[in-house]
Design brief:
By secondary structure, the protein is α/β, with parallel strands linked by helices. 26% of the residues lie in helices and 23% in strands. The protein is globular, with a radius of gyration of 22 Å.
Length: 427
């Protein structure tokens, strides 16, 4: 038995793997910290949100449930993320696989660490070529050249070493000279995944949920082709095949379920996701874990929260604004009340919401107990601070004429996220 825990350019590979002493486990994120991938949102007239996010623990749970439901066990799982903050997706998947008995071997790679964005060429630089993001292009070359029996961690090491946007690459050196962080590719393994090798058969998922720029489109197309050439077209499910699949959260779940259900004994399971990533802080989870693990009391008044952001928030959001993207950071909040009759009006009639002392515009939707509402936060509020602590303040207060007090209603969910962050572009 296991507890389901829970991946953004992501690749999962199942392979034979004996216990290995060379495992390098993923870096564990801090309390309440999560990474996300982007999926298209179901169409809603007048909705501000054209995308949704899938959190690291959600994706891990999606994969774990697919394995449980199918009753089929992959021999090992390999994950690669070509997305901003992608390194933060690795620890949840590794932890989930560790709760199977015996644990399922894991290998995980990403274009970036848990707290930094990654790089790609802008559309003008790509032009009419098939150029993709720097890390994915080096990963594609490494996969093409990998022989049956080659260790997956060795393939990943070649890809990371050849990433032009990494510290040792020509593009990465240019960014360092400009005072920016380069790609920070990751190579991790757990549960004996260090010994996992490439096989000759697999079931594959290639997914991109917010496929906007030329490099992303080329990543998806080329990875679909390379893995089809290697394992057969029938084994590959790609979000580019809109007749059968798509770019919604439900499509990703269906694709994973289909791939796991089709596994034969000894098959690899491969999932590649290329797209915009994100970083999210679950404020209540962080407070609960702080008080439980470290016995630090919450000193702030009710409904006032202080959150410390890692430096990648400002770097990624500023970079997106500079290159003409429109990042959509958010807070997501849910309430409950004992009688169930207090939250019966539009949210702006009940609460005021502030970030750094600036009032936010809440949507007019009626507050439904237990259901989360997402509120847009201007990116500029999350890219500058009064000191070097990167500390921001959230304040959620009932309005004077709403008919109830702080004590009457409980905040049951509170998350703050970068939203969908495009990889940083160079020319």
């Amino acid at each position: 038995m296991r507890r389901l825990i829970l991946w953004v350019s992501l690749l999962i590979l199942v392979s034979v793997g004996a216990a290995g002493d060379g495992d390098v486990p993923p870096t564990k994120q801090t309390s309440g910290e999560h990474s996300t991938i982007t999926v298209q949102a179901p169409s809603a007239t007048g909705s501000l949100w054209t995308y949704d996010t899938v959190r690291d623990d959600d994706l891990a749970e999606m994969i774990g449930k697919a394995i449980d439901k199918a009753g089929k066990r992959p021999l090992s799982v390999l994950v690669f993320f070509n997305s901003c903050f992608g390194g933060g997706m690795l620890d949840d998947i590794a932890a989930m696989l560790g709760e199977f008995e015996p644990a399922i071997p894991f290998v995980g790679g990403s274009a970036s660490s848990k707290d930094l964005p990654c790089w790609g060429p802008n559309d003008a630089k790509v032009g009419g070529t098939d150029m993709g993001s720097y890390w994915t292009d080096s990963l594609l070359d490494a996969i093409r050249d990998a022989t049956v029996g080659e260790r997956v961690v060795d393939t990943l090491a070649k890809a990371n070493a050849d990433d032009r946007a990494a510290e040792t690459g020509d593009v990465g050196q240019r960014h360092i000279n400009d005072g920016d962080d380069p790609d920070t590719p990751q190579n991790t393994s757990a549960h004996g995944g260090y010994a996992s090798v490439w096989g000759s058969s697999a079931q594959v998922v290639v997914f991109s949920g917010n496929n906007t720029d030329k490099d992303h489109k080329n990543n998806e197309s080329k990875m679909t082709q390379v893995l089809s050439n290697r394992f057969g077209k029938a084994a590959v499910r790609s979000s580019s095949d809109t007749g059968n699949w798509g770019r919604l959260r439900a499509d990703l779940e269906r694709m994973i379920d289909s791939a796991v259900a089709a596994l034969n004994e000894g098959d690899h399971l491969i999932l590649y996701v290329d797209d915009h990533g994100g970083s999210e802080i679950d404020v209540l989870e962080r407070e609960i874990e702080r008080q439980t693990e470290f016995e630090i009391p919450q000193e702030q008044p009710d409904n006032i929260y202080e959150v410390i952001l890692h430096p990648g928030w400002a770097f990624a959001l500023d970079g997106n604004l500079d290159q003409g993207d429109q990042p959509m950071p958010y807070i997501s909040v849910a309430f409950s009340d004992g009688d169930g009759d207090l939250l019966s009006r539009p949210l702006p009639e009940l609460y005021s919401f502030q970030v750094q002392g600036v009032y936010l515009t809440a949507p007019e939707a009626v507050a439904v107990p237990g259901e989360e509402t997402r509120i847009y936060v201007p990116a500029v509020l999350l890219t500058s601070w009064g000191d070097d602590t990167r500390r921001i303040t959230l304040r959620i207060a009932p309005l004077a004429d709403c008919g109830f007090s702080i004590a009457d209603v409980t905040i049951t969910a509170l998350r703050i996220g970068t939203g969908s962050v495009n990889n940083l572009k160079d020319d």
